Every structure is written in C-alpha cells, then in structure tokens.
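Summary for the lay section of the report: proteins are chains of building blocks that fold into shapes. Here we show the chain for Phosphoribosylglycinamide formyltransferase and then a coded description of the shape we predicted for it.
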Amino acid sequence: MLSIVVLISGGGSNLRALLEAAEDAEFPARVIAVGADRDAEGLAHAEEFGIPSFTVPFNSFARREEWGDALLEQLRQWQPDLVILSGFMRLVPPRVVAEYSPYLINTHPAYLPEFPGAHGVRDALAAGVTQTGASLIVVDDGVDAGPIISQERIPIHPGDSEASLHERIKPVERRLLVQAVLDIANGHIDLKELSRA
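The coded shape description reads as follows.
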C-alpha cells in the first residue's frame, strides 16, 4: 500500500479526488496526512475523511529555508512513500527536494514545458494560444521543470476567462493524478527510472 502526504494551499479539489479514490478498498494507495502552507480551505476535506493534517505557515518564518526545514520535519514524521504537491503555491526548498524526489510530484495547469510558474492559466490566455493542458511532473529544483509523468491537451475556447479555463483544467488534473498514483502503486510507473531518463 502506497502511503501519501498531500500538500495544498487552496481548495484541495485534487486532494478530494484522491481521498474519494482511496475509499475503494481495491485502490492501492492511502493519503496518510495532509499539509498546508496556510489555513487552506482544502484542510476541511482531510477532516471530513478523518485524515490527520498539519499546517506550516510560510509567513511564520523569516527565510524560505527555515520554513522548508519545518516542513521537512513534519513530512519525516509521516514517512510517506510519495509526497504530492497539489495546488501547493510554494517552491519547496532544495533540502525537501533532495530528501523526497523523485517521490515528490506536482500537478500543473498547463502543458509543460509551456507556461511554467504560478500563473500557467493566465499566461496561456495572454499568449493567445488555442490550447493548453494539464501536466503531472516529478519535482526537481527548477520551476515546473522536472520529468513529465503524464499530460493532456485542453482546448481554449473563445471567450474563456482565467476562471472558466481553470475549471475545465481541474477535472483533467484530477484524473491524471489519480491514474498516476494507481500506476505508481502498481509499478507501471517507475519514478526513479523516469527521473534517470
């Protein structure tokens, strides 16, 4: 059974999709804890499903590295097989990456390497392209630059706003994430091998 800690910053819709998938006794992974960098709405999903949660508030630390060390301390307590950044709006410091990568993965609302960074949806609209996507990657020390686990194209409709486009991307992100967790747990995706490629 694959044990997972999910890190969130917002509503946690990807987290909820994983928690719902894991309710199936046949699903080979379990979320054992949920962490956040602020008082995130998505922590309510953890509470609803009876999953322990923790918060390491970014603003409580003078330096990103200090925050990263406190986050690392929390993660180590759970000894997860996999850490998922899901709508987690902070770059994790190198020490966290060094300890968990390639078993540290991230969802991103664009077809990487197109539109990396915090504003992937807005940047795609600003660029005037006709399609964007959703990607799942292994986290490395770059910004959305790690090996791609899976991704899918999503059309941009005339008149799309950042909000409407993001709403169409989210279900694809959820599907990619749940499928990847299943494939990692079943050995169909080897993150170590993927990171060596």
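Put simply, here is one thing we learned. Residues 2-191 form a domain with the Rossmann fold fold (CATH 3.40.50.170).
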